UniProtKB/TrEMBL annotation:
Protein name (database record): 5-oxoprolinase
Superkingdom of source: Eukaryota
Stated family: Belongs to the oxoprolinase family.
Molecular function as annotated in GO: 5-oxoprolinase (ATP-hydrolyzing) activity
A family per Pfam: Hydantoinase_A
Gene Ontology CC terms: cytosol
UniProt-listed GO biological process terms: glutathione metabolic process
Residue stretches making up the Hydantoinase B/oxoprolinase domain: 746-1269
InterPro entries: ACX-like_C, Hydant_A_N, Hydantoinase_A, Hydantoinase_B, Oxoprolinase-like
Coiled-coil segments: none
Domain Acetophenone carboxylase-like C-terminal: 554-723
Residues covered by the Hydantoinase/oxoprolinase N-terminal domain: 9-223
Chain ranges of the Hydantoinase A/oxoprolinase domain: 243-538
Amino acid sequence: MTSQPKLTICIDRGGTFTDCIGFYGKPGATDTREFVVKLLSEDPSNYKDAPTEGIRRIVEMATGQKLSRKEPVPTDAIDSVRMGTTVATNALLERKGERCALVITKGFKDLLNIGNQARPRIFDLAITKPDVLQQSVVEIDERVVLLNSAAAIDRIEPKDVPNAIEGVSGEWLTVQKKPETESVKQQLQKLYDDGFRSIAICLMHSYTFPDHENMIGEIARSIGFTHISLSHSVMPMVKIVPRGTSATADAYLTPCIQKYIEGFTSGFDDGFKEGTTKLQFMQSDGGLVPVSNFSGFRAILSGPAGGVVGYSATSYEEGDDPVIGFDMGGTSTDVSRYGGMFEHVFETTTAGITIQAPQLDINTVAAGGGSMLFFKNGMFVVGPESAGAHPGPACYRKGGPLAVSDANLYLGRLLPNYFPKIFGPNEDQPLDRDVVHQKFTELAKEINAIHPNDPLSVDEVVYGFIKVANETMCRPIRSLTEAKGHNTSHHTLAVFGGAGGQHACGIARNLGISKIILYRHSSILSAFGLALADVVHEVQEPCAEILSSNSIPNLQQRVESLVQSCTTELSSKQGFGVSDISHEIYLNLRYEGTDCALMTLKPNDSWDFESAFVQLYKQEFGFSLTDRGIVVDDIRVRGIGHTRSTDKQLTPDHELKTLDIKDVDENAVRDSVTSVYFETGRDDNVPVYLLHNIAPGTRISGPAIIIDATATVVVEPTCTAVITSQHITITVGKGDKKKITTDMEPIQLSIFSHRFMSIAEQMGRSLQKTAISTNIKERLDFSCALFSSEGGLVANAPHLPVHLGALSHAVTYQMNYYGDDLKEGDVIMTNHPMAGGSHLPDITIITPVFDNGKIVFFVASRAHHADIGGLTAGSMPPFSKELYQEGAAIKSFKIVSNGHFDMDGLKRYLYDIPGSYPGCSGTRLLRDNVSDINAQIAANQKGINLVKSLIGEYSLEVVQAYMRHIRSNAEGAVRSLLKKVVTEHKGEALTAVDYMDDGTPICLKISIDEKTGNAIFDFNGTGPEVYGNTNTPESVCYSAIIYCVRCLVAQDIPLNSGCLDPIDIRIPPNSILSPSETSAVVGGNVLTSQRIVDVVLKAFGACAASQGDCNNLTFGKTHESKGWGYYETIAGGHGAGPTWTGQDGVHTHMTNTRITDPEIFEKRYPVLLREFSLRPGSGGDGYHRGGNGVIRDIEFLEPGIEVSILSERRVFRPYGLEGGKDGQPGLNLWIRHVNDKVLTLNLSGKNTALFGKGDRIIIETPGGGGYGAADGEPPCSQNVTHQKPLVVKASGSLGAYKEMQEST
């Protein structure tokens, strides 16, 4: 007698819907019985928990037995439940996790608050950073010190140091201070008495020396804490900030997961508790784990990960094109890529929390069907705001706003008659077509009132939003694939998610992709993917060895130990046979002296990791560094317990080869006819087919709509769908495009805005990939932009604020300089302040774009080079008085002429000329300069190719017309702002003055014409140029103004020269803002630019002053064989405003550079970071307090280190506004050992000194000013609004780059 088969049930709980699929038999097999349920994730009036309800319904369908919602669901018919859940994600997004505390090394209590010190959005005056997860912090008086740093010149032998300890990574260290047991007990007991039960413990260098964390963990267990996250156990990787946030996330989320699981299992009988029914969860890395091993910080992408597993198994065929996964659901659109191996990232930021853990490289690029629709500033805007699941789009009958799903409904791409009737108070009503029609009709009237000369039909308006939505999603998809060295068009598009089928053809056509695959379970592929997923157990250890033949034996031994650990877990604890277990072995490798580590898979049957790494590095970056050693940062083993229960081929290719393809018999198969709007207009005779009625081998030519049980697929005109037993495969035709004219159309305005910006962004990705220096590749200290043939800025990716207006000056200068003497194949190099430069290390490369022999555009890239000669290494001397002391100064040089690269001329400009001045050197890094300049030239060529492609697509006349339209759009937004301001000020001029620390005034008077919105920014009265380096090129002044204007507009307007068209900027000659040709300027770029911003914002009354400084710290050592140097800028306080409190410890305005992680800092340089914390009370008091500055205390562990500080706001305080108090000025201290004495010396704002061993520099950065009187009425201002921050669920590699891009 055969036993009754049991169900396997897979569930994906998404933001809007919960998808459930149950199987009797093997997933994907022809004899399998399947049961599909789709229900709202939240419906408290009908059920408490959507996954439990979904399982109940599946069991009912499978067994035929009616099960009461009031009774526990029986599990006797269930073999296993596999779940992807958003519980952890939602707890993180909504900040509804477990109350937890952080235990950290003394001196670092505020470290996770400061993070990398960058602000999330560079144009938000009201800086908003997500709250940290811990509610309390305890500092432990303990410290370990690494014996040798990478830069140490005099290496210390461990045998010469008593009590030297070898860490897990192989690094040697000493214990400077061991925790005192009794003191730790008292501190933890107080936490426990305060009600904390979950804690995270993260100590400096615990990734390699975990003893102190283990000791504190044992004490915490003895006290009774129920959850203890040790950072070295959570993720044993270097970098205390992401390791600390990961441990804190685990302490915050895992108790929530455990509570959810307890609540979930309580809805069933005892099958889960007794183990007769298995319960497994999907992790962010695409692997399943038993419920006992499921932790919060590995659950962030639990839901989307199932979709990646699903499309990898159902869409990718070995040897075919790689696949882009396009998962468009109700509340998010996620994009990923699969080319035969899962692509993982190991450090991502979700909801403001950086997490170190292996995660599939999934990137949220839009808000899905819930992306809200707006008409702003004359442009169609889609997202990033989302209608969410509640209230959802307008058609959900919950009073929601217009969203993408509503547009699809209006256009006929979503059919209420075929959509589940689950809406309304009783869950029995269809999607609401009437309210959607009403809202879009009203919106069309609003749009046509603004553009009465060329009115749009409602259909055209709604379709415009779909076109903009598609382009909004395509832009990051291009960036994701191009960044990894892949051509976007050479991919297959795997489409899934409930809304994916409605956009598939449009997305593919925009990307140049010709093949689309939709699996039959495309709308529930994340749930189906769970059935195909394997069980995974990962282990990882830190390492610090150089990869060589000598190190391989030790690495092999360590790998074997980790392999055995994985095997034991999967076999002994989870029941897998040895034959069902495999292992993936990785080394996390990087070149010495770089930050770019790549997780490198061990080649089959070989330990040649070097060749594998070099090949991977070339694929990612386009070159290799053959003269550098390769460092092993981590050893990782991924143990896989294979569970796939079907041998059936799940991809369509094999079946397509065997099918006899025939055109559909429309009359026999068609279910109905509907009206759908396409690019060419509305078609009232579009056939609708039900997928289950279509035989495999049927070909359907678009236009058509194919309806599955849970999905709607739109086959657009010129596209052709072929049905197989498991898939819909669509071949995408070129399509008929509506002819675009030179007349301004708001839909096309939005699309061209995206296309122009995409050109600048892709130039940036090209530059970052092919550059060699840390400044460009890792700090992203560069900008790329597109310019008109007249030199006006068309698009500038949001890289560096200080470059925003300056680049246009550089292009205009070269146009005037060369006149008609520019030919195709010419490339210009410049960096001189008089030629539109900022400071000399910023080298600009400009290339004209020709069409039929005429210049039609320019492209340019500006990048900070590590050295271009001058007095000091790094070319940023704190005491320069003349321009020549700061390095090579080049007004104009054709580095490429008629296609010939002038290497001799480059050497003359960068090496010979600057080295001819007294006390100065030519560039110290000529080889790196050449490599980075070539990367800039290549980035410009990328931009030229993209511009020419755009011209080929639309024509030169149309592209240039929309360049002018977009410029006019930005101009209009600024004029509206200025008119509003002058009205509020009753026609009076706006004035402000502030001072540099040497007393030099910067004066501004702004006069605005009420009728036209024209403005004069007059800096008359500003002090003369100084015999120092705080002089500022005029171009930098323009950058500061365009930055301020963009911030004040407070909308995502196109960033181009139109922003300055209404503004006449008047700068007195030979002033500090318009210095003479030979004046030093290095400080003007990083210091005076900040004061200009302070003055402009003060004149507008927008907000109190921020720290007004970059706090430039450099130190290093000159040595015959191994000199080194280091440069950082340090955060401070953020100024408060009429509706916000100032942020603590953050970079503001013209800079946004990240700071080096404390552990990396100490690994690289002979320093001990004694403190990095917030500076209490440094923010100005007020109704809204100013943000606090920071304290950075660095001890030097070697003698003879030259230390320089270049800073401001050490005399004049950051101003408060409207009764708010000023912030505290900064302070730079030298703790100096002289003989037997310890002296405390004030270094003032700008100084250089030679520090001895044990000497310290303590930098206390300025606070921000307060806004409004502390005891007064709430301040109000009509001048300033600020944007709601966008919270992204899955950042992936694209999100990491974007974050870096907007924080440099």
